[in-house]
Amino acid sequence: MTDRADGRATTRAVRPYVITGGRACTGAAPLSWETLVMAADTAAPESLLPEHLMILTHCQGLLSVAEVAAYLGQPPSVVQVLLADLIDWGLIVTRPPVPPAERADVTMLRKVLHGLESRL
Fold it and tell me: Which residue, among 90, 84, 96, 88, has the nearest Cα to 40 in the 3D structure?
């Protein structure tokens, strides 16, 4: 939904299924919402959809799929399809999220924090 000057919400002129060409998924596994994406150092062709160009504009640094969806104001499922297009064309690089097994143990981090706080 976009906001008008008077503060009322309006519906989007282009529906999400039109933006993705009716595709709900890609041939590859969908990107998780935590996957980090960044624009590659490749020049974008002028024939891209405006949504593809907006993604490339926002992805100059690392952003998660969920953050890109928030910036575009589109559902994450739509952004996943658009990002898959950009990945296929070599315009976006991805960095998978850290698996839960490799993340630091939160209880250990809390103990370290409390130990540091007690020494100050």
Answer: 90
Number of domains in the chain: 1
Whether 60 maps to a domain, the answer reads yes
And the tokens for 77? Answer: 């499922």
pTM: 0.64
Spell out the residues 6+ positions from residue 6 whose beta carbon is closer than 8 angstroms to its own: none
Domain-embedded: residue 10 = no
Domain residue limits at 72: 23-119
Q: What is the pLDDT of residues 3-42, one digit of tens each?
A: 556 655 544 556 665 566 556 566 667 788 888 999 988 8
Q: How many residues does the chain have?
A: 120
User: CATH no. for residue 49?
Assistant: 1.10.10.10
The tokens of 88 are what? 């296929």
SS (HEC) of 30-84:
CCCCCCEEEECCCCCCCCCCHHHHHHHHHCCCCEEHHHHHHHHCCCHHHHHHHHH
CA distance 4 to 112: 50
